Amino acid sequence: MSPVAFLDLGALHRELREEMHAALERALESGRVIGGEEVEAFEREWAEYCEARFCIGVSNGTDAIEVGLRAAGIGPGDEVIIPALTFVATAEAVIAAGATPVLADVDPRTALMDPQAAAAAITPRTAAILPVHLWGQPADLDALGALAAKRGLLLAEDAAQAHGARWQGRRIGGQSAFAAFSMYPGKNLGALGDAGALTTNDEQLASAARTLIDHGRVSKQEHGMVGMNGRLDALQAAFLRIKLRRLDEWNERRRAHADAYRAAFSGSDVEMFAVAEQAEHVYHHFVIRLGDQRERDALGAHLDQRGIGWGIHYARAIHQNPAFADLERPGALPIAEALPGQILSLPVGPTMSPVERECVIEAVLDFHA
Ligand SMILES: *Cc1c(COP(=O)(O)O)cnc(C)c1O
Question: Which residues contact 310 (CB under 8 A, 6 or more apart)?
């Protein structure tokens, strides 16, 4: 049996080779490699795609979260509630902004931030709620938005895994104070290196973010605040513009894989996560849940034997990493602590063929038989 890659970026780029070469040629000719037309065009196109008023290209997704928080005035003394099951960058960015991450548990049905757990984590120091649209499914923006409004908190989104996802029919990107995207190569929309973006409808926040990412520059020779180097490269913007034209098609292919998995596994012992009625999932990952860690690891070994790529997103809750062992966690986090030992991500990349997908399905069903 031929191997199935977890994600084949080479195959993805093969479809775009000529256009990417042309973009590189244009960059070589123009000499404008930071900022400039390509970045501005990408920012316009990404804002429009996300149904948001403003987009600021940023160096990467982690910086985009930090910049968004700082631009919103969140910093030292403030607490930001994040889900306990996410990539560590969510917590890192809050700390980089000078604020304190506070962990809330996730809903066992979706693995997304549980609005009740978020409500229970609120203290007088809470300034913001920062849900993560983990694996490509939007968190419950209705419940979290209502909670934030009721308690006078900022709602913002870590949308690093949710390019093109929708909540209540509207794209992720314009439904909270800001949404932060990562365009790391493996994301649904990825550059050929590190890149990111922040979208917002708030003109003041957009303007502050723009200043922050350019060393706090307010005019050519004047720096009005302590900023950072958080700019997006022109070449990455050019590559992103080319790939953006294919994003919907790639997300469709991911959804087709996910639908096929769901159809094949329904009625079997394979446990899957629910999709909320209001959500349009873009399947950055397709994740199944096993009974325990021994069973999960055995399935991993079984897939290895058949040459099928797989992953774990993530193998530890945030606070189970030594670097974050001391983080605030007002309530118990039983779900976020249990899931890392039980979850396994199957290949769902846009270049996987239906034949390859059948190999994955057969391997998973054989394991459970
Ligand atoms: C990828 C990712 C980030 C960080 O993005 P980078 O571009 O790698 O800095 C943040 N949060 C989540 C949930 C991610 O998946």
Answer: 6, 299, 300, 303, 304, 344, 345, 346, 347
Q: Which of 182, 188, 192, 285 should be mutated for ligand 1, with most atoms under 8 A from CB?
A: 182
Give the pLDDT of residue 2.
62
Nearest to 247, CA basis, from 347, 164, 138, 169: 164
Average of pLDDT values for 345-353? 97
For the CA of 182, the closest atom of ligand 1 is 7
Q: Is the CB of 60 under 6 A from ligand 1?
A: yes
Q: Average pLDDT, stretch 37-55?
A: 97
In this prediction, residues 312-335 reach a mean pLDDT of: 93
SS3 letters across the chain:
CCCECCCCHHHHHHCCHHHHHHHHHHHHHHCCCECCHHHHHHHHHHHHHCCCCEEEEECCHHHHHHHHHHHCCCCCCCEEEEECCCCCHHHHHHHHCCCEEEEECECCCCCCECHHHHHHCCCCCEEEECCECHHHCCCCHHHHHHHHHHHCCEECEECCCCCCCEECCEECCCCCCCEEEECCCCCCCCCCCCCEEEEECCHHHHHHHHHHHECCEEECCEECCCCCECCCEHHHHHHHHHHHHHHHHHHHHHHHHHHHHHHHHCCCCCEECCCCCCEECCCCCEEEECCCHHHHHHHHHHHHHCCECCECCCCCCHHHCHHHCCCECCCCCHHHHHHHHCEEEECCCCCCCHHHHHHHHHHHHHHHC
| Ligand 1 pocket check for 86: Cβ under 6 Å | yes
**216 and 203 Cβ atoms separated by less than 8 Å:** no
CA distances from 57 to 233, 308, 359 (A): 9, 35, 39
Distance 101 CA to ligand 1 centre (A): 16
The Cα 346–Cα 163 span in angstroms is 19
pTM for this entry: 0.97
DSSP lists the bridge partners of residue 179 as: 157, 199
pLDDT, position 369: 83
* Per-residue confidence (pLDDT) for residue 35, from 0 to 100: 85
